[in-house]
Design brief:
Blueprint lengths: L2 H32 L21 H4 L1 H4 L4
Amino acid sequence: MDKNIIIAIVLGILVLVSIVQAIQLNELKTKLSEGSLTLSKAGSATSTSSGAGVPSNIQDLPSMVGGC
């Protein structure tokens, strides 16, 4: 195959992917503006000072930073 044909095919695929992502982003924006988007409890992050509900590998994170 010619090099220009391969580049054109790859460019076409990238344009199609970007169009699909733009459509998905527009749908998400619409859902956010309408307020019809809900978050699941497992996906939401809560900030607590005691560390309750945080996995054990994340609770020890401040002591692991630095490595000295």
